[in-house]
Design a protein that fits this description.
Length: 123
């Protein structure tokens, strides 16, 4: 059986470190990437359960392509700005959830597949 893993693409090092630390009890492997191409490469190699993608590093079409290429992976997106249109677009492109970058606990819960107590698109 494959160990649960996650691949992170984050623009902010503090957020990336906070996510990695918070995800470590639930995921055996956490891979950090620097670009959307590196994320694709890691996803192809490791077949993670979760792709956690900062929308400052990816486009809506990238999310759509990830959703098609890795149908078994949960795609969780984040962005530092509350942008309802962009978040609705990424959900329509195949993302499973979107949260503000500052909401580490909600991002971790989404990565774990736990439903939020309250969830709105706007922050």
């Amino acid at each position: 059986m494959q160990s649960p893993s996650v691949v992170l693409l984050q623009s902010n090092l503090y957020i990336a470190n906070s996510l990695a630390q918070a995800l470590s009890p639930s995921f055996a492997e956490i891979h950090r990437t620097e670009s959307i191409n590196e994320l694709r490469s890691y996803a192809a190699e490791y077949r993670p359960q979760v792709l956690l993608v900062d929308m400052e590093r990816a486009s809506v079409s990238d999310i759509q392509e990830l959703s098609r290429s890795f149908p078994g992976a949960r795609i969780i997106c984040n962005h530092r700005a509350a942008d309802e249109k962009m978040w609705a677009d990424v959900l329509g492109a195949g993302a499973d959830d979107c949260w503000p970058s500052s909401e580490i606990r909600d991002l971790v819960n989404a990565a774990q597949g736990n439903p939020p107590l309250v969830h709105t698109i706007a922050a």
